[in-house]
């Protein structure tokens, strides 16, 4: 695997492909390292952000489903 971090000075960049990659499928990704930081900060949610999204009856049904699913783990197959 080959990874390099660059700061381009022009809109074009030339790559030298290592010999052992010739004839193989390779993947080239281009993204700004700032993109991940921006997305992470805006998408972080706390559990309290979801308070009230389920009704009490829906929550009880969901909890019963989870409990039943966990009981199946101990089943002798």
Folded structure, characterized:
By secondary structure, the chain is mainly α. 38% of the residues lie in helices and 0% in strands. It has two helices and no strands.
Sum this structure up briefly:
The protein is mainly α. The protein has helices at residues 33-43, 56-73.
Core attributes:
77 residues; mainly alpha
Order of helices and strands: HH
Helix content: 25-40%
As a whole number of angstroms, the C-alpha radius of gyration is 24 Å
User: So what's the overall shape?
Assistant: elongated
Structural category is mainly alpha
Described by strand count, sense and barrel closure, the largest sheet is: none
Mean pLDDT: 84
How many strands in all? 0
| Stretches with pLDDT under 50, minimum 5 residues | none
**Please, what is the oligomeric state?**
single chain
The portion of residues forming beta strands comes to: under 5%
Number of helices: 2
Q: End-to-end span in angstroms?
A: 42 Å
């Amino acid at each position: 695997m080959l990874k390099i971090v660059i700061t381009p000075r022009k809109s074009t960049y030339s790559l030298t492909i290592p010999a052992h990659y010739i004839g193989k499928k390779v993947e080239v990704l281009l993204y700004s390292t700032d993109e991940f930081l921006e997305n992470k900060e805006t998408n972080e949610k706390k559990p309290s952000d979801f308070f009230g999204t389920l009704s009490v009856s829906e929550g009880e049904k969901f909890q019963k489903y989870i409990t039943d699913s966990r009981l199946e783990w101990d089943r002798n197959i």
